[in-house]
C-alpha cells in the first residue's frame, strides 16, 4: 500500500502487527480513529500502555491481577486445596462465569507446543509442581483444551506430580447441553457414553 | 465479562470501541500484547497518538498528508484541471494503485447519509464548489460508490456546479475484467450493455 502520510503508515503498520489484523483492517481502524475526537485515541493508547507497563500476575496462580495476589487467591472463602489448571486467563473467566467452581486456579500461560517453540520451561509448571510438593494441594483438575498440545501438557504435568499424594481429575467431555446426538462428533459421543454418570447426579444442577 | 484486573478491563474496553472489534476480540488482542515485549505496545500506542495529533489534511484536496499540500497536489506533473471526487483516502490509494490517473483528487470525507447524521455540511463540498467557481477545473470525475448515499452525494454536488462550465463524468460501471457474464448481477450487466464502448477503445489497455 502506498500511503500519502508517514504518520498514517506507521500507525497502520503497528496496528497490523496484532493477530488477525491485516493492513486493510488496520487502515480502516486507524481512519476510524481519525474521525473520532482526539481524546478517544489518547484514551486508547494510554490504556494500552498503562496495562502493558503496570499489569501484575498473581504470585500464587499467575492470573492477571492489579495486586500481588489476585482476588480469587486472596478470597478466604475459596478452597485452596483444589487447583484447576488452565491455559490462560480467558479460561479462568469462562469457568468463573459458571459460578460452579469454588477452588483456586493455576494459569500455565499456554500449552506445550514444540512447533511454536513453547517448551515446559516457557510455562508456569515449576510453581505448580512446587505447590503440589508443599502438600497443600489435594486435587488437581486439568482443564486444558483437548488437543494434542493440551494432552501433552496434561501428561507432562501428571508425570511430574505422580509421586505426590494428590488426586488428579479432568473436566468432563461430552455432548453439550441442548445439543442433538445425531450431530455430535463420534469421539465426543463415544467418550460421553464411556464416562456416563449415575442418573441422579444429572438432577443436581446449577 | 468479569476481569481480574482494572488495567486489563480498561484496555479491553477502549479497544472494543473500534469498529468491528467486540469484547472477545479486544481481549484476545490485548492478551497478545501482554505476551509481546513492552516495546511493541509502546510503539503501537505512540504511533496512534502521533498520528492522531499531528496528521494533516491537504489544503487543496483534503487527502491525508504530512505536509500542507499532499504529494499529489504538490506534483507539477499532475493535471490540476481534472479532479476526481472520492469518498475517502482509501479510494485515492486504490486509484493511485492503478497508475491510470494523472489528475488531482478531492476527498469528501464521507457520503451524504441522513440516517447516520451526515449532511452536506459535514463533507468537504464547499471547497470543491469554490474550486469549480474559480475556473481552474475542466472536468469533475465522480468516483463514489454506487449506493443510494453515493448517488445522492453525486447529485447534490452536480446541482451545485451545474451552472459553471465544467465537464462532469463518472467512472465506468460494468463487468469486472475476468468475470463471467452468467454470474454478474443484472444491474451491472445491464449498465455495461447500455454503456458499451467502441471495440478499438478496449484494445488500449495498461
Present the secondary structure layout.
Two copies of one chain form a homodimer.
Chain A: H1 6-15, H2 23-35, H3 38-54, E1 56-57, E2 64-65, H4 71-74, E3 79-86, H5 89-98, E4 103-107, H6 126-133, E5 139-142, H7 148-161, E6 167-170, H8 186-194, H9 199-203
Parallel strand pairs in A: 3-4, 3-5, 5-6
Antiparallel strand pairs in A: 1-2
Helix pairs in contact in A: 1-2
Could you walk me through the main structural features you see in this protein, from its secondary elements to its overall organization?
The structure is a homodimer of 206-residue chains. By secondary structure, chain A is an alpha/beta fold. Chain A is 44% helix and 12% strand. The first copy, chain A, has 2 domains: 6-54, RecR Domain 1 (Helicase, Ruva Protein, domain 3); 64-171, Dna Topoisomerase Vi A Subunit, Chain: A, domain 2, CATH 3.40.1360.10. The first copy, chain A, is built from 9 helices and 6 strands. A 4-stranded parallel sheet of chain A has the order 4-3-5-6. A two-stranded antiparallel ribbon of chain A has the order 1-2. In chain A, helix 5 links the parallel strand 3 and strand 4. The model of chain A has no long low-confidence stretch (mean pLDDT 90). Chains A and B meet through helix 1, helix 2, helix 3, strand 2 and helix 5 of A and helix 1, helix 2, helix 3, strand 2 and helix 5 of B.
Amino acid at each position: 500500500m502506498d500511503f500519502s502520510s508517514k504518520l498514517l503508515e506507521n500507525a497502520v503498520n503497528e496496528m497490523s502487527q496484532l493477530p488477525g489484523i491485516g493492513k486493510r483492517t488496520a487502515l480502516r481502524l486507524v481512519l476510524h480513529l481519525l474521525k473520532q475526537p482526539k481524546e478517544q485515541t489518547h484514551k486508547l493508547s494510554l490504556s494500552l500502555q498503562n496495562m502493558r507497563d503496570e499489569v501484575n500476575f498473581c504470585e500464587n496462580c499467575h492470573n492477571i491481577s492489579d495486586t500481588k495476589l489476585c482476588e480469587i487467591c486472596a478470597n478466604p472463602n475459596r478452597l485452596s486445596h483444589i487447583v484447576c489448571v488452565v491455559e490462560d486467563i480467558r479460561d479462568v473467566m469462562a469457568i468463573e462465569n459458571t459460578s460452579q467452581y469454588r477452588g483456586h486456579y493455576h494459569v500455565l500461560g499456554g500449552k506445550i507446543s514444540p512447533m511454536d517453540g513453547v517448551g515446559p520451561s516457557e510455562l508456569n509448571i515449576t510453581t505448580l509442581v512446587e505447590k503440589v510438593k508443599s502438600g497443600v494441594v489435594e486435587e488437581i483438575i486439568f482443564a486444558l483444551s483437548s488437543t494434542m498440545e493440551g494432552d501433552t501438557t496434561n501428561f507432562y504435568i501428571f508425570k511430574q506430580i505422580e509421586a505426590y499424594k494428590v488426586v488428579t481429575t479432568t473436566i468432563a467431555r461430552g455432548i453439550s447441553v441442548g445439543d442433538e446426538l445425531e450431530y455430535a462428533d463420534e469421539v465426543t459421543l463415544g467418550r460421553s457414553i464411556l464416562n456416563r454418570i449415575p442418573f441422579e447426579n444429572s438432577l443436581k444442577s446449577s
